[in-house]
Specification:
The complex is a heterodimer.
Chain A: E1 2-6, E2 16-20, H1 24-33, E3 39-51, E4 57-76, E5 81-88, E6 100-105, E7 111-114, H2 121-131, E8 139-145, E9 148-154, E10 159-166, H3 178-197, E11 206-210, H4 214-228, H5 232-237, E12 241-245, H6 254-259, H7 261-267, H8 271-287, E13 293-295, H9 297-305, E14 315-319, H10 328-344, E15 347-351, H11 356-363, E16 367-370, H12 385-403
Parallel strand pairs in A: 8-11, 11-12, 14-15
Antiparallel strand pairs in A: 1-2, 2-7, 3-4, 3-7, 4-5, 5-6, 8-9, 9-10, 13-16, 14-16
Helix pairs in contact in A: 1-2, 8-11
Chain B: H1 11-20, H2 30-49, H3 56-65, H4 70-81, H5 85-93, H6 99-109, H7 116-129, H8 139-147, H9 200-213, H10 219-231, H11 240-257, H12 280-286, H13 296-309, H14 318-330, H15 335-344, H16 348-354, H17 365-373, E1 379-385, H18 392-403, H19 408-420, H20 436-441, E2 448-453, E3 458-463, H21 471-478, E4 483-489, H22 493-498, H23 500-510, E5 515-521, H24 532-549, E6 556-560, H25 582-585, H26 589-596, H27 607-615, E7 619-626, E8 635-642, E9 644-646, E10 650-654, E11 658-667, E12 670-672, E13 674-676, E14 680-686, E15 698-701, E16 707-718, E17 726-731, E18 734-747, E19 753-756, E20 766-779, E21 784-789, E22 792-799
Parallel strand pairs in B: 1-3, 1-4, 4-5, 5-6
Antiparallel strand pairs in B: 2-3, 7-8, 7-15, 8-14, 9-13, 10-11, 10-15, 11-12, 11-14, 16-20, 16-22, 17-18, 17-21, 18-19, 18-20, 21-22
The chains are: A alpha+beta, B alpha+beta.
Chain lengths: 421, 800
């Protein structure tokens, strides 16, 4: 994303920024930047119905620039589309004030964003990160086991599941080669779908991960294809393939893979690898029953209140999903927390909810802290029973919202929750 | 086509024949008469064999039309005499009018308005026989047609003068003598006599659909609707006259073009007592129009037009009706089932389609099972567990060889192949490790299944993989077993204790196994060989592990053995060997197995209790989906967790919710009529697509489907610290990604709450957690669950 122009007042945070999204990932940043009640100005196509004096109506599609006050955002990471709905805040000759419009933010088209509540520190950080033009790392990963392959694109801020291939493999049985045949077929399908996703002209690193030998076999399958086929690009891809072990073929195993030594050696300086390591570190601490690690909104806030997340190792892990809350108050609460930790000299990590590490964090309530000293009994919050229940409900919601579909974030699907007890 | 030879008959002769028509329907040459004389008795004899009577005339007729083919003539006569002639006729007329159909019809009728070549063809065919049935009285009508421009007969190079084309065509007012000649028309497609056609099925289905829609159809309707069928494919630009005339004319023509049954024609007039019922079509055609409907051509056309406006196929097809009636009478046993299906399914039309084609024998399985109980040998499935390379597969290969389930020849063959690969010591393991990959790497990937019998019992071996990456497969295998055989390499104890020996013991407990036989293997390779001391030290190391996992002392048996050498597996060691101490205090592996067979814990003590278990609704987890054979293209295997299944049962597969019929079933590779709880069986399914079946799905009785849920509460024993986090969830063979969404509470041994909403679960705690899934999962209350995370078993427990 390019920052075309900005006139943000440092102190008050007032002002606006003109941004130019250049690649799909930028829309993800935009999704994190734009909040309800903000003013968004972008080009739009609107159908205008005009009625002539004689009463005949005519439809016209008009290209115009609209300013809306945002009410709702809808992000589809797979198609990389961001739809922003809102009410028109500036009248023009085609559109009346207060009428509704949904802007589809497009690549290579400027949009202007003005924050309703001013640009807070988190928003500014997001903006900074968004306009960072450093070379962005991207890699393709295939997490597989026999009969299942997840093809996903891992970028700095997102893990997008592009395709899931499932096939039914018959078990080995004496005198039957059916298993081998089906295995070859499964590899072929996976390979074909992978090729459809990859841009061979500009190959990115490809990570193959599986338990046991499936990934190795798949690698030799690709090699065989490259050797026999006429596809030259494929040969260039070969040296970019890394094979790693994962505990299972499911997508959440990507975590282990990204933090495994074989992979970190190659990709150590990427944001997602750092995030993964941090979350791993947190999990290790909490498993050790070391009282320095706490998770959950209430506990984290308490820890920060006590000044435990400060200089010398204090880390606040927070999922950016929390900042996307529709309620301004909720967002303010987290921004306040972040600011406090920064003041105390602690480290703040905003994890992308679109990465596996972010997902892990979200299942913990979206926020966790590593304190500089052990704190006992942070969770003595039995008094505020109801409040806690409410929070847990929130967590559940977050899980439903993000847990299904791997990346249809923002599209809340109503998951039928059948109680089994 | 045979008749084409007659083309060179001169016209005079033709006319002669025509003239004779009034007195006798057909005239035969001398040669023909001879043939008749010779063949008629033969046909008659054939017919009498099946108890049918036929007049000379009919037989001759048949022979004539089949050109002396006795077999065909007999078949035709037989068909003609079957009790449902009317239905057969209707059947033909009820065929769907596909394009193909229409085209075939048109060519058969010789309607081809424009095709000159076709005209020639039909002309040739026509010339051969047209003389045989002619009628002078139609002459005046013929003229009209001849003059009509659309009829291209004038220009055709035909031996007949144009007017003879239509010589025998009964026009709108058939003369009385010819009244019954017309009915020949319905046989325009004689090949369909048998009622078999690719199109029969769609017709039937459509019929069923309509039948369920409740449209009633009288036979009269069918008959009249049949009318418009043969006359239908006409171009609108065609003149009216040929339109009406087309049908009888063409039917005659087609008659010549291929062997076909004779028209149930005017000949029959002479012997009315023997004559078959005229078809509905015939009756309609031969019905004399009342004089005031003249001009007849017009009225006929009107009739056609009026008929055409109706949908001739709105009623059920006769096939459908018959099938329905048959189902009603014979399908009593499965009728209730079908009804239930209907109740479950919203779409009534699909109900019939899912109705099993295989008939259930309606066995009272629990009773049969109880009756057979006394005669049965005890049986058990055991899973072989242990760390990788501790010799599980080899030990099992040895066991199978020594009990005679595998021949020495096979082993020798493996031995040779294995030596070529430089892995001679793996030969025995190859009995279990059948896939090329496994043999190459010398590691079991997926659990193998093998049956064997001893005089005392039947066993199923489930040889689990020991490698940590294949633990999911091991869980799948263990969940099918009744007991476990833990193989421990006496020389490599440490690797196992840290690795999968420990994990497998936990998992065996987790899936609910109670008895375990510990085979302390590779004692021959110890230093010194067969050291009793070593055996005992290993025993003392393993025992606490088993005890802490919850195995009772009396359920554990320790066996010293060597899989590779075969010592103390089936045969006890010789007294002279250093292992001579073994028989004094220990059983052989096989003896230990026979003694460990759980008194089918699940079919417990009292017969009544066993009976109850059998009566529960069917539950079976699919372990494998495969192509059984050519006759059984879709088969599934698994262990029945509750209830019974028999051939013909309608089962439901969850989570897909699709239904399937059990076409056949095998237990221990032998076909059976039924299978009961605890047995490992193979079901051959029909009426379902393979895409609806996956390993890990649950087969259940269609009336009592398993629920599919996206979250559940699990009571777990924690082995590794747990947070709300993503986990791999294993239910037997099913292996799905899920996540712990909430730590509900920790509980003590009695299930009393210790702490509400703990922040973290520590190893050794017992807790209740909520687990969510990305996709719906078929869940059974009380089912055993294993949670794994990052390649380690983190917890196990039961669904609540």
């Amino acid at each position: 994303m390019r920052l075309i122009k900005q006139n943000i007042e440092r102190k008050t945070g007032e002002g606006s920024a003109v941004l130019l999204p250049e690649e799909p990932e930028d829309l993800w940043h935009a999704y994190n930047l734009i909040r309800p009640n903000d003013l968004l100005r972008a080009s739009a196509i609107r159908k205008v119905i005009s009625e002539s004096g004689s009463g005949s109506r005519s439809n016209e599609r008009v290209h115009t620039t609209l300013t809306i006050r945002v009410t709702k955002l809808d992000f589809d990471p797979q198609a990389a589309q961001l739809h922003v709905s809102g009410r028109v805040a500036e009248e023009n000759k085609h559109v009346k004030l207060g009428s509704f419009h949904t802007l589809d933010l497009e690549l290579q088209r400027n949009f202007t964003l003005e924050k309703a509540e001013g640009w807070d520190s988190v928003a500014l950080d997001t903006l900074k990160e968004a306009v960072n033009q450093d070379a962005k790392v991207q890699l393709w990963a295939v997490i597989m086991k026999e009969g299942l392959a997840n093809i996903c694109l891992v970028t700095d801020h997102q893990t997008i599941l592009r395709q899931k291939i499932e096939s039914n493999l018959p078990r080995k049985r004496a005198g039957s080669t059916e298993h081998e045949k089906q295995m070859q077929k499964f590899f072929q399908t996976t390979f074909d779908s992978l090729l459809r996703q990859l841009d061979l002209a500009n190959p990115k690193p490809l990570l193959l991960a599986s338990p046991a030998y499936t990934a190795t076999h798949f690698q030799s399958f690709i090699k065989a294809q490259a050797a026999s086929g006429t596809n030259k690009g494929l040969r260039e891809l070969l040296p970019k393939i890394t094979v790693a072990q994962s505990a299972s073929g499911h997508l959440h195993s990507l975590n282990e893979v990204l933090s495994s030594p074989a992979v970190t050696a190659k990709l150590s300086d990427t944001k997602f690898a750092r995030e993964t390591q941090l979350v791993d570190h947190f999990f290790t601490l909490i498993r050790k029953a070391d009282n320095r690690a706490w998770y959950g909104p209430r506990e984290s806030e308490k820890a920060v209140e006590q000044g435990a997340v400060g200089k010398g190792g204090g880390v606040l892990l927070i999922s950016n999903g929390l900042f996307r809350s529709q309620e301004i108050e909720v967002r303010k609460r987290w921004v306040k927390l972040v600011d406090e930790v920064k003041e105390q000299g602690g480290e703040v990590r905003v994890l992308s909810s679109m990465h596996e590490s972010g997902r892990r964090l979200e299942s913990l309530g979206g926020v966790a802290v590593i304190c500089t000293w052990p704190i006992e009994d942070l969770d003595d919050g039995e008094v505020e029973e109801e409040d806690e229940v409410h929070e847990n409900g929130e967590v559940d919601e977050a899980w439903h919202e993000n847990g299904d579909g791997h990346g249809i974030e923002g599209r809340v699907e109503h998951v039928e929750d059948i109680d089994f007890a | 086509m045979q008749r084409v030879k007659n083309v060179d008959y001169d016209e005079d002769e033709l006319y002669d024949d025509d003239d004779e028509y009034g007195e006798e329907a057909e005239t035969y040459s001398q040669e023909d008469r001879g043939n008749f004389a010779a063949l008629t008795p033969v046909v008659r004899a054939e017919l009498e064999e099946v108890g049918l009577q036929a007049s000379d005339k009919e037989i001759q007729d048949a022979l004539w039309n089949y050109y002396w083919d006795v077999a065909k003539a007999v078949t035709y006569l037989k068909n003609n005499r079957t009790p449902k002639p009317q239905q057969q006729t209707l059947k033909k007329q009820e065929r769907p009018k596909s394009k193909f159909d229409e085209a075939a019809e048109r060519s058969a009728k010789g309607l081809g308005e424009s095709g000159l070549s076709f005209r020639i063809l039909s002309c040739l065919a026509w010339c051969g026989r047209c003389w045989s049935v002619q009628d002078e009285e139609v002459g005046h009508v013929v003229k009209i047609i001849v003059e009509s421009p659309s009829d291209g007969s004038e220009g055709t190079p035909c031996m007949l003068p144009p007017r003879d084309w239509f010589r025998d065509v009964p026009w709108t007012l058939p003369p009385e003598t010819q009244g019954h000649l017309v009915p020949a028309a319905p046989v325009y497609r004689p090949r369909l006599l048998g009622g078999s056609s690719k199109l029969a099925k769609p017709t039937e289905e459509r019929g069923k659909k309509l039948a369920t829609a409740g449209v009633e159809e009288s036979s009269a309707d069918g008959a009249s609707s049949s009318l418009d069928h043969p006359t239908k494919p006409k171009e609108p630009k065609e003149n009216e006259a040929p339109l009406t005339v087309g049908e009888p004319r063409n039917s005659q023509r087609s008659e010549k073009r291929e062997p076909k049954p004779p028209p149930s024609s005017g000949l029959e007039e002479e012997k009315p007592d023997l004559r078959a019922q005229p078809t509905a079509f015939a009756r309609t055609l031969s019905a004399r129009p009342t004089p005031d409907t003249l001009p007849a051509a017009m009225s006929f056309l009107n009739l056609l037009a009026s008929e055409r406006s109706e949908d001739p196929f709105k009623g059920p097809s006769p096939d459908g009706t018959v099938t329905k009636a048959q189902n009603r009478s014979k399908g009593m046993t499965k009728r209730p089932l079908a009804n239930k299906t209907q109740a479950l399914k919203l779409d009534p039309t699909s109900t019939q389609a899912t109705q099993p084609k295989v008939r259930s024998k309606g066995l009272d399985v629990p009773r049969l099972w109880a009756e057979e109980r006394a005669r049965r040998k005890p049986s058990a499935a055991f899973v072989v567990i242990g760390h990788v390379d501790h010799g599980k597969s080899t030990l099992m290969g040895r066991l199978l060889l020594d009990v005679g389930a595998v021949s020495q020849r096979d082993i020798d063959k493996y031995q040779k192949q294995a030596s070529e690969m430089g892995k001679a010591s793996f030969a025995l393991a190859w009995v279990m490790d059948t896939s090329a990959e496994e043999r190459e790497r010398g590691v079991t990937f997926d659990f193998a299944q093998h049956h064997f019998s001893t005089p005392k019992a039947d066993f199923t071996i489930l040889d689990a993989p020991g490698h940590r990456d294949f633990v999911p497969n091991m869980i799948g295998g263990a969940s099918m077993a009744d007991m476990a055989v833990l193989v421990v390499d006496a020389n490599q104890l440490d690797s196992g204790m840290k690795g999968q020996t420990r994990e497998h013991i936990l998992l065996a407990k987790a899936v609910g196994l109670k008895k375990v036989v510990v085979a302390i293997n590779k004692l021959d390779a110890a230093t010194p060989p067969w050291s009793q001391q070593l055996f005992e030290s290993v025993q003392t190391d393993i025992k606490p592990l088993l005890a802490t996992s919850g195995f009772a002392d009396e359920d554990i048996k320790f066996i010293p053995c060597s899989g590779l050498a075969g010592t103390n597996v089936v045969n006890p060691p010789k007294p002279s060997s250093p292992a001579a101490w073994i028989p004094k205090s220990h059983f052989t592996l096989l003896q230990a197995l026979e003694r460990s067979i759980p008194t089918p814990a699940k079919l417990t003590t009292t017969a009544a209790a066993a009976h109850e278990l059998l009566k529960q609704p069917l539950r079976m987890q699919i372990i494998d989906v495969f192509r059984g054979s050519i006759t059984n293209p879709l088969s599934i295997a698994g262990r029945i967790a509750s209830g019974t299944v028999q051939i013909g049962d309608l089962v439901m597969i969850q989570p897909s919710g699709e239904k399937a019929a059990v076409k056949a079933l095998d237990v221990s590779d032998e076909p059976r009529d039924y299978a009961v709880v605890g047995q490992i069986c193979t079901l051959h399914l029909s009426d379902i697509e393979a895409q609806h079946l996956r390993s890990g799905d649950v087969v259940c009785a269609s009336q009592h489907p398993v629920r599919v849920a996206k979250s559940c509460t699990v009571l777990i024993e924690v082995l590794e610290a747990l947070l709300p986090q993503p986990v791999d969830v294993h239910f037997g063979r099913l292996h799905v990604p899920g996540r712990i969404s909430q730590l509900v509470e920790t509980v003590d041994g009695k299930g009393e709450q210790l702490k509400r909403r703990p922040k973290v679960l520590k190893a050794g705690q017992r807790a209740r957690v909520r687990v969510g899934f990305e996709e719906g999962v078929p869940l059974v209350v009380g089912e055993r669950v294993v949670l794994r995370s990052a390649g380690v078993t983190a917890a196990y427990g039961r669904m609540e």
